[in-house]
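The aim of this short unit is practical: by the end, you should be able to scan a pair of folded records and say something sensible about each. We start with the first protein, listed as its amino acid sequence and then its structure tokens.
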Amino acid sequence: MAAPPVMRRARVLTLVSLGVAWSTSLAGPGIGVLLEPRPAWQVLGLVGVVLFGAAHAGVLYAAVTPVARAPWDAAFVVAALSSVPLLAPVAVGRWDTWAWVGASLVGTAPVLVRRWWVVAPLVVVVAVVLAPEPLRALVITGGVGAGLALTHVLPVWLWDLVVQAQQGREARARLAVIEERLRFARDVHDLLGHRLTVIALKAELAARLADVDASRAGAEAGEVRELAASALADLREAVHGYRAVELDEQASAIEQVLTSSGVRCTVSVPSSLPAAARELSWALREAGTNVLRHSRARWCTIEVVVDGDDVRLTVANDGASGVRGHGSGLGGLAERLAGVGGSLRTGEEAGVFTLVATVRS
């Protein structure tokens, strides 16, 4: 399932914030390259700026995006180490070129490494040692770098909170499905476990008596048949009970799952519904599945209306583009509703996907 809109917006805002430090890694050393009078060192400095800027952009993007970080981390370490021989001699005496690289490293250290409080002072020390004017290098690397770090801590911290909240919603949605499956499995086991054991024992007894007492073996076989038929009838009744879930209960369950997944859900179901409305539970279940799996919906509305002899279910969401191409479930649902005299209609308008299912009471 695609990332919800709130996740995408939070990621973009975090990247924009981190872009401030990235621009420093280009602008600061770039000025030094422009001030360098030696052509050879201008070329080497430009190579160092491009390599460091590209690796810096990649590692920042990977820090807040679900992509492999290891290659970018390795590239960034190589680029940072290479920047020392490539940029430290550039515009010496005119501009503290590498000190600005150090400021970018200090500014993004809290984002990239856990022990940033160890890495940041080491970078400052390197900048002071390399610079002809240590005090100015200290101010640039330490002061500017600390300011950049402070501007990044809050956005990255908020991004981590958004990620954790989204993971929690997804976990709750999965847990709801798992709990329902376990409940169904437990009920089926309680219903059939004892009877199947008895059937197996009686079938074994009938097989043993077949050569000794044919009449008794036949009686046992008859009991096995009766027990099997009774178990099958109970199973069908139980399954029918699961299939024919009350529509208001189904709507409440769908609302909880959607809400836990970050979709704003509004439900309107009358307190009294005819028995035929149970058939709409399938339609509601399929619609809820589409919203969860196949769309990028931010909101969803569920409305049930009794209009004379008709009961109409309307489910709308703003994730229409994600529902396309997943019509097999809807096709089966249309056939099921047609079998009970109902109908199904779906449509899309202005980015809103709407499902309307109707049955006659």
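Turning to the second protein, read its sequence before its tokens, just as you did above.
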Amino acid sequence: MSDLLRLGLNDLHEELGGKMVPFAGYSMPVQYPMGVLKEHLHTRAAAGLFDVSHMGQVILRPKGSYEATALDFERLMPVDVAGLAEGRQRYGLFTNDAGGILDDLMFANRGDHLFVVVNAACKAADIAHMQAHLSATTEVLPVTDRALLALQGPAAEAALARLVPQVAEMRFMDVAQVPTVFGELWISRSGYTGEDGYEISVPDGGAEGLARALLAMAEVAPIGLGARDSLRLEAGLCLYGHDIDETTSPVEAGLTWAIQKARRTGGAREGGFPGAARILRELAEGPARRRVGLRPEGRAPMREGVELYAGETAVGRITSGGFGPSVEAPIAMGYVTVEHAATGTALAGELRGKRQPVTVADMPFQPTTYKR
């Protein structure tokens, strides 16, 4: 663990009894004394506080006009950047020339610049990618002096509003910059659990004070990586490097909702992004395989790497799987050939040398509760 990067709040996590494990080059809390199951259920019932400071925060500051920066950034992905309204955030995907996904990310229009949050394991590559392609119009400025916290669950609004009343008025994917006693907070109403909630970028000097103020509230508990994973799996959300990667197209991954009309065939700014030929073809004709939800029979979870069969024919593989505490059953997601992707299709997963029944299911497994 000695060569791992430490979170700014590392001492607080240890004080809270966090079990620290290696993740994306950082020492991260995987769980606290409450345990993964109770942390998961607490987030669904009340509010959970996650430290996601390992993620990459980046400011894209125009050298000239905001419009030029937005269009330049848009050329890196099949997503409408130019049409994003000020004060709003959107999900994005960097793609490669083969139509695969380099990373998934969030970006926000903050009036005179863009604010981007990328995955921890990809952040060095993402920053280099942006610097290589945006330098003519844009300063790519990694943010290295702020923590990132996520407050998730049905009580998140009431909890955060005690400290920052303005957040009660925000809707899903709104962003705001709010001066507080903890420093200026950069807040988005978003997260990766399927629950209503917020992600909060806070100056390093104010991070511990903000975390302690939230954790002092009866409804807020610290939550680790274990429950973060089971929550996002129930919500049917992809984990980069597992459910999506450089070989996976956005269409195969079921992320076509993230490709707005303006970037599609016939749109105002169709194509022009890496891998456009494959991605636009798959939008028109359909892909050869699709990401699907899966419900194993019985109580034994099927995890990443389990091969899927229709009769004696291998038709796919599980990319994420585990027990869903809220649905009280094993759940999984993975890729299967399009002929076997319909909801209700009966398949088998190879588990410890035996084939066990598994059924293609709709996602999310747990209804989302975003405040729209």
